[in-house]
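Trying the structure run again after the queue cleared.
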Amino acid sequence: MQWEHALTDYTHYLRIERGLSHNSIENYSYDIKKLILYVENHSISANPTTIDTDTVKTFIYSISKTINPRSQARLISGLRNFFDYLIFENYRTTNPLDLIESPKIGRKLPDTLSIKEIDALISAIDLTHPQGERNRAIIETLYSCGLRVSELTNLKLSDLFFEEDFIKVTGKGDKQRFVPISPLTKKYISLYIKAIRPHIPVIEEYRDILFLNRRGKQLTRAMIFTIIKQLVEKAGLKKTVSPHTFRHSFATHLLENGADLRAIQMMLGHESITTTEIYMHVDRSHLSEVLHKFHPRK
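Done. Tokens:
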């Protein structure tokens, strides 16, 4: 069995059987391609069914010099899943990563922005520029709805249910959920739709996409990162801010103000409550306040 054949079969499995998104499949494939490149560059005569633990160990050791422990752990996990699939399909009987341990890493707490910092970013937007109204609506939507960047770029006009105060979001694995939307965010999105969007030469295939670039195409993930980076510099913030920072801030601020963890899970689109529970570690003072307020033994 050749590497390309095995990788193609695996990506089909991830898409069809596991229902993973395009971005998730790309991430899984990227790690496997690293191993393939290593085998080819070192003229190793091993295919997916014959590669052994020692070869994989040597590969991981070589790449560990250029990546951090968290990335190394993700790499090992991704390769382990790949070889588990080959075992499941009877291409192999053993997993070469069974005896390889992942590096010990601490649980990374999400970075967040304060409300004051979010206001500073929004204030830094130049509303005299044609993209100003759009960018303000983008930041407000990221923060007020807790969206992933891919969920934001894929948001459609037909996903807006403003009369019901909800938007329909398509998340990982094409799973859909309804997320509440605030009056302020509705206001900024509506301003963009009415004042800016009519002047954009929209390309037909993107006609239902909400946020467009000036050429009428769907915004890319990279463009959202660039917009945020420029606003951070303009606002003078000394933090590393990404689209995901707004999602973390959304969840943290909800929890700090007394929101139920289960409700936060549903709005974020987390499949497991354990993923959402990381926010319980962000503000321990809030947990103490909850205990003193609600526990009968005060």
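DSSP finds 13 helices and three strands in the chain. Worth checking whether this holds up in the mutant runs.
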